[in-house]
UniProtKB/TrEMBL annotation:
Cellular component terms per the entry's GO annotation: cytoplasm
Protein name as catalogued: non-specific serine/threonine protein kinase
Top-level taxonomy: Eukaryota, Metazoa, Chordata, Craniata, Vertebrata
Domain Protein kinase: 1-106
Catalysed reactions listed for this entry: L-threonyl-[protein] + ATP = O-phospho-L-threonyl-[protein] + ADP + H(+); L-seryl-[protein] + ATP = O-phospho-L-seryl-[protein] + ADP + H(+)
Residue ranges with Acidic residues bias: 206-224
Originating organism: Phyllostomus discolor (pale spear-nosed bat)
Biased segments, Basic and acidic residues type: 225-240
Length: 715
């Protein structure tokens, strides 16, 4: 196995080297041996070591303290040695899994029925608890058994019902086709369904009955003593009929004066009607007469009922008037805000139009100045262009004149040279008289042609040099003029740009001023709107606060009256709630008993007769377990009801005591204020001191008396 250095694992089972792996290096598979030792301690003591600590604190203690050991001394020496071997602090001293497999604790012989013995011991303990709860629930269930036919006898004395009678209850317990296919699951499925149905029905019934009881109490408080007496009479008559087990209503015997308080009978086998008792007959006749009178005189109302209806109508009218006042106030506030916003919007639009006109006027002025400057620059450019052309013509004429003079001088010099050379040639011919005349003429002609050719070449070279010089001077002059024109254009462009920059700066300054003015205007308008909204909201809140305080005061008064009535009726309400819970649990137990009977009948029909004994035993245990669960739920419901009622009573008592204490504090503070005023306004020091001492003594006596009363109330 490759070593590791990661910090992972469950904190309480983590080995020391795993905790220190981030600092001291790696670890190997022996960390699982440590976890095995911790698991052994958990199995022996029901929790791992250091389990009561925080996880991070436990990690610190595991790394710093000694190895944990078994706390109890009744374990075998082999097991203790095995745990100590697994929990060696130094990993090198800790054995590997191969060595632990050869340990005496692992290799020793064990009886083969250990697990079955543990299971049987646990089942016996659970069965004993279920029997206790079952006996407790049986006492609750069969308290009303002798009072009517609804109570059922113990199941040992009941005959097994036939399949036709149990069909209505088989659907509630669940489908029985699955029970026929597997005989090992039916009891569990039926118990789960019956338990969930019973718990849900109990919760819903308790909630509904509590709500109905609260509504009836409120109605009794509002209707006054006469209505309460009438309700008590009806309740007494209802109690007589509900607890009487003699009157039975057969199917088809309904008439016009059926008892509205007659409880519904559960479906079952028909029973012969018993002889009616005279008390039940007179009570039912009395109720029917009351119903007829109530129907005949339904429009007659007492003065207290009329006055109460008038007060309720006035309260409703006041509430409606408050609501309509709220609506009118909100509409008025909305109109004010809309008018203010429209006026401010007009101011903003007018301000924006004025600023836009100012900006357009400035831009128009800037445009006119730019056009004027452009025309001036254009005129300067045209003037400079004409002057440059004139100077260029003069410069070219000047150069051409100089070149003409040079050419004329060259031609004059060539003429003189030609004449001199011609005379020299003639003199040379005269010096040689022996040369024929014809040869002399040819030689002289050749010399003239050479001289003319040289002069022509010299003249062509001069013309070529003059032309090159003329072109060079023209280019230089044009370059100079272009540079001057470019400099002028740059100056004009710079002037134009400076002018535009100045205009843009002025325009930006104007826009900034306009933006600042707009911002100040919007800020003033927002402040005005916010002030108006705050004022309107303050008025609305003041109105709502006043109405809410009035409503709270009225509701507090109503709650005080309601709480006083609840405190007066507390013993009766506790008893009635306890009876309701008891009745609900009895109904649930009856439902489960019927389901149990139906299931037992079905299973007895579908299973062989040899298995009936074990089947009945298993069903009996299942029923006992369900009733034990119901007993626990019953105890929990009673305790929760008592605790909630105790909390409500303590809260009401605390409220009354707080009000009484505040009244006493006001009474006790009144002499102190009187003494301070007497001390400030009195001129006679002795007289004022004596009065102050007397007032303080009275206050102290009252405070002492109040303290003794408080201690007595706490006791």
């Amino acid at each position: 196995m490759a070593p590791a250095n990661s910090f992972v694992g469950t904190p309480y089972w983590m080995a020391p080297e795993v905790i220190l792996a981030m600092d001291e290096g790696q670890y190997d598979g022996k960390v699982d041996v440590w976890s095995l030792g911790i698991t052994c301690i958990e199995l022996a003591e029901r929790k791992p070591p250091l389990f009561n600590m925080n996880a991070m604190s436990a990690l610190y203690h595991i790394a710093q303290n000694e190895s944990p050991v078994l706390q109890s001394g009744h374990w075998s020496e082999y097991f203790r040695n095995f745990v100590d071997s697994c929990l060696q602090k130094i990993p090198q001293d800790r054995p590997t899994s191969e060595v632990l497999l050869k340990h005496r604790f692992v290799l020793r012989e064990r009886p083969p029925t250990v697990i079955m013995d543990l299971i049987q011991r646990t089942k016996d303990a659970v069965r004993e608890l279920d029997n206790l709860q079952y006996r407790k629930m049986k006492k609750i269930l069969f308290q009303e058994a002798p009072n009517g036919p609804g109570a059922e006898a113990p199941e040992e004395e009941e005959p097994v019902p036939c399949l036709q009678e149990t069909e209505p209850y088989m659907h509630r317990a669940g489908t029985l086709t699955s029970l026929e296919s597997s005989h090992s699951v039916p009891s569990m499925s039926i118990s789960a369904s019956s338990q969930s149905s019973s718990v849900n029905s109990l919760a819903d019934a308790s909630d509904n009955e509590e709500e109905e009881e609260e509504e009836e109490e409120e109605e009794e408080e509002e209707e006054g003593p006469e209505a309460r007496e009438m309700a008590m009479m009806q309740e007494g008559e209802h109690t007589v009929t509900s607890h009487s087990s003699i009157i039975h209503r057969l199917p088809g015997s309904d008439n016009l004066y059926d008892d509205p308080y007659q409880p519904e009978l559960t479906p079952g086998p028909l029973q012969p009607p018993a002889a009616p008792a005279p008390t039940s007959t007179t009570s039912s006749a009395r109720r029917r007469a009351y119903c007829r009178n109530r129907d005949h005189f339904a429009t007659i109302r007492t003065a207290s009922l009329v006055s109460r209806q008038i007060q309720e109508h006035e309260q409703d009218s006041a509430l409606r008037e408050q609501l309509s006042g709220y609506k009118r106030m909100r509409r008025q506030h909305q109109k004010q805000l809309l008018a203010l916003e429209s006026r401010l919007r007009g101011e903003r639009e007018e301000h924006s139009a004025r600023l836009q006109r100012e900006l357009e006027a400035q831009r128009a002025g800037f445009g006119a100045e730019a056009e004027k400057l452009a025309r001036r620059h254009q005129a300067i450019g045209e003037k400079e262009a004409r002057a440059a052309q004139a100077e260029e013509r003069k410069f070219q004429q000047h150069i051409l004149g100089q070149q003409k003079k040079e050419l004329a001088a060259l031609l004059e010099a060539q003429k003189r040279t030609y004449k001199l050379r011609k005379e020299q040639l003639k003199e040379e011919l005269q010096e040689n008289p022996s040369t024929p005349k014809r040869e002399k003429a040819e030689w002289l002609l050749r010399q003239k042609e050479q001289l003319q050719q040289c002069q022509a070449e010299e003249e062509a070279g001069l013309l070529r040099r003059q032309r090159q010089y003329f072109e060079l001077q023209c280019r230089q002059y044009k370059r100079k003029m272009l540079l001057a024109r470019h400099s002028l254009d740059q100056d004009l462009l710079r002037e134009d740009l400076n002018k535009k920059q100045t205009q843009k700066d002025l325009e930006c300054a104007l826009l900034l001023r306009q933006h600042e003015a707009t911002r100040e205007l919007e800020l003033r308008q927002l402040q005005a709107v916010q002030r108006t909204r705050a004022e309107l909201t303050r008025l609305q809140h003041q109105t709502e606060l006043g109405n809410q305080l009035e409503y709270n005061k009225r509701r507090e008064q109503e709650l005080r009256q309601k709480h006083a009535a609840q405190v007066r009726q507390q013993p009766k309400s506790l008893k009635s709630k306890e009876l309701q819970i008891k009745k609900q649990f009895q109904e649930t137990c009856k439902i489960q008993t019927r389901q149990y009977k139906a299931l037992r009948a079905h299973l007895l029909e579908t299973t062989p007769k040899a298995q009936h004994k074990s089947l009945l035993k298993r069903l009996k245990e299942e029923q006992t377990r369900k009733l034990a669960i119901l007993a626990e739920q019953y105890d929990q419901s009673i305790s929760e009801m008592l605790s909630s009622q105790a909390v409500v009573s303590s809260i009401l008592l605390l409220q009354r005591f707080s009000e009484h204490l505040r009244a006493h504090v006001c009474v006790l503070m009144r002499p102190k204020k009187q003494s301070s005023r007497l001390f400030g306004s009195s001129c006679n020091r002795n007289w004022s001191c004596s009065m102050l001492i007397r007032a303080r003594s009275r206050s102290e006596r009252r405070v002492n008396t109040r303290g003794s009363c408080e201690s007595w109330s706490r006791e």
